[in-house]
Amino acid sequence: xxxxxxxxxxxxxxxxxxxxxxxxxxxxxxxxxxxxxxxxxxxxxxxxxxxxxxxxxxxxxxxxxxxxxxxxxxxxxxxxxxxxxxxxxxxxxxxxxxxxxxxxxxxxxxxxxxxxxxxxxxxxxxxxxxxxxxxxxxxxxxxxxxxxxxxxxxxxxxxxxxxxxxxxxxxxxxxxxxxxxxxxxxxxxxxxxxxxxxxxxxxxxxxxxxxxxxxxxxxxxxxxxxxxxxxxxxxxxxxxxxxxxxxxxxxxxxxxxxxxxxxxxxxxxxxxxx
Length: 274
Prior knowledge:
- The chain has one domain: Purple Acid Phosphatase, chain A, domain 2 (4-Layer Sandwich), CATH 3.60.21.
- The strands form three sheets. It has a six-stranded mixed β-sheet with strand order 1-14-2-3-4-5, with helices on one face. It has a six-stranded mixed β-sheet with strand order 6-7-8-9-13-12. Strands 10-11 form a two-stranded antiparallel sheet.
- It is 23% helix and 25% strand.
- It has helices at 4-26, 63-76, 95-98, 117-133, 168-171, and strands at residues 31-38, 47-52, 80-83, 111-113, 137-138, 142-148, 151-157, 180-184, 202-205, 214-215, 219-220, 234-238, 241-245, 263-270.
- The protein contains five helices and 14 strands.
- By secondary structure, the protein is an alpha/beta fold.
- The longest helix has 23 residues, at 4-26.
């Protein structure tokens, strides 16, 4: 007969193994999240945008997993593909294949991206070079107008809040209110620090990983001060503007996700209410 102390030790050990085993399993089980955004001024057929962020190709996120993600994106047939930054983790050596699974995806209205904190401190110039090589247009304090039939779509992106020099005035300088406006910042906390001259229809961010470990009753236990808990996953209303924060794809520090699976965000934009 085992003692009470040994029994308790076995119970705790079994719980720990299950906890880590499940976390390792869930980090590979991505989910597709659908976001429906009705735009009053939208003309014509809906479009589909796929938003991917925090790929974090590195020791915890392998190339085979990113290929699985890219295969799923191909099936979704997006009109626009947007990357929210943090393409690598731990070393810029991973840039050799971080974006290559997405190179052959050629949406009608292009591939776009911004820089994240890991991109800036692991090798900003090398990340930019990799984006160019994989046909991803960098929106670094820059905007671009897409004309598609009768539709006008303004995309603008800013540098990372903590490791770069984000400049909203420069990034949104040429935006007008005659089209749909979508803004991208790696860190969602940037948005509450700025005032818009022209109100966007949608803001996109990542950075938080949704907490990576988001326990019932306790909430996210893996958020750093630069993440903040105010905007850490899902849809928010920021003074009448929709802000969506994705849980992202990869992981950092520990290769676990618990109640917080990787995410492919599908944004459906239409003139009708869904």
